[in-house]
Amino acid sequence: MLERVAQVQPDGCALWWRDTALDSGEPVQLTYAQLLARSHAVASQLQTTHGIAQGDRVSWLGLNHPAQIILLFALARLGATLVPLNHRLSPAEWRAVMADCTPALLVHDNHLAPASIALARSSGVPSLAADALASERPAPLPGQPQPDNAWHTPALLVYTSGTTGLPKAAVHTQGNLLSNMAIAAQSQAMGASDTVLTVLPLFHVGGLCIQTLPALSVGATVLLHARFDAGATLAAIENERPTLTLQVPATLKALYEHPRWPAADLSSLRAVWAGSSVLPTAALSGFHDRGIPVCNVYGSTETGPFSVALPPDHAKSHAGTCGWPGGGVEVKLCDASGTTVSQGEVGEICIRAPNVAERYWPDLPAVDPEGFFHSGDLALQAGDGSFTVVGRSKDMIISGGENIYPAEIESALLAHPLVSECAVIAQADPRWGEVAVAVVVLAAGNTAGEGWAAPLQSHLQERLARYKQPRRWLAVEALPKTALGKVQKGALKALLATDPPAV
């Protein structure tokens, strides 16, 4: 794929990288010809100097860096696999991942050099600095897997965030990645004239696979920041004029609340894409009011993750939904027995597509015998075919015999200006079996004084059936989250056991 793009536009800018972790970081630019040459040279170095062969794994620990992308292409050339480590994890968690996937080498950037060297030493794995990777000097090209085998050859191991247990690594083959690039590029109408701003971490499939790799597959330019910074992101939109960017609820909120927001020139953006089932209402309206559609992407680590997408022309009319399946993606909603539910009924999202990982490392099935991945997310499908996520199957609350879906309540609460963040969880109740408890982070400038929840209760009374409304409320300073920003509802339930809601 990279060779094809480099042949068509060798001098086109592939990567424009700024180390936003350093105030004085100078940008680095790579053309497609240079990216191809670097990946070939690194493949040769890995093979001849470090003995990396087909089937081996190489870990990466660092902030966003061109070296990680070069490594992915270089290892694919060898039939080897990249394992990006979440740099937000603890050393103990890194060691557990290293013990699980047994990499032959750990490559790191300068920011995380001390931690990486210590990790490599404790794991018994050699380490290599990104600066020591081969330059684009000519090098003999190593052998590579035959095309038929390459399609099924693992290229990327991505560990899940572990919200419900120990992390597992989804095994993405070269075929999975190429299929995801095609689905994502088509859904976002990407072309060589696009410039994509990547600020989310590449250790996750969201940052790597929703826009970054799809952009490279069509010859677009990727503006890569080492990490997210709201001011740097707004400055890049004004000065480098990207046409697309990917955000998550927390970064959308940070952009909208930044002092630079009101005056920032965002006119180059034809769309902002966001990976989430529930988006913050204020930030969503802030972008829409300026003529920039915010488009949702639904997926998971195992599904590519580009599965269901809300396109720009429906961003306003279908706000709150996840949209429609991408090209070649099959989605069905199933009950607990695996039977497809009737129209209008809630069911678990099950996905079958060429970008879905079929197994977890080393050889655990990730899909059912028919090839469907069972997401654990519950959704409704409207008559027009669009999907709306209503919660996780394990998060569903059964109160007095009625099913309550937390995402529906959370979405309604986020529409109130008093609410910055929220989560709805179940708490045991002797009368109802379970009741809904709303855990709320109040917007800046508000305190949880007497009667603080009253306006929120009134707000929900106008929008939700009585049985769906929270019976108890708790105000907190922050929600516990995983390293990928997912709310840890298990930790909230533990909090309720020691600190019951005062309202």
Describe the structure.
The protein contains 14 helices and 26 strands. It is an alpha/beta fold and 503 residues long. It has a domain at 395-498: GMP Synthetase, Chain A, domain 3 (2-Layer Sandwich), CATH 3.30.300. α2 (32-48) packs across α3 (66-78) and α4 (91-101) packs across α5. The longest helix is centred in the first third of the chain and has 17 residues, at 32-48. The model has no long low-confidence stretch (mean pLDDT 91). InterPro entries: AMP-bd_C, AMP-bd_C_sf, AMP-binding_CS, AMP-dep_synth/lig_dom, ANL_N_sf. This is Long-chain fatty acid--CoA ligase. Keywords: Ligase. Belongs to the ATP-dependent AMP-binding enzyme family. Residues 408-486 form the AMP-binding enzyme C-terminal domain.
> How many distinct beta strands?
26
The rounded Rg comes to 23 Å
Structural class, by secondary structure, is alpha/beta
Bin the strand percentage. 15-25%
Q: What is the CATH T-level topology of one domain?
A: GMP Synthetase, Chain A, domain 3
Biggest sheet layout? 9 strands, mixed
Q: Can you tell me the residue ranges where pLDDT is under 50 for at least 5 consecutive residues? A: none
Within CATH, the superfamily of one domain carries the name: ANL, C-terminal domain
- N→C terminal distance: 58 Å
Name the strands of the widest sheet in spatial order.
Answer: 2-1-10-9-11-12-13-14-15
Helix content: 25-40%
How many H/I helical runs?
A: 14
CATH architecture of one domain: 2-Layer Sandwich
Shape: globular
CATH class group of one domain? Alpha Beta
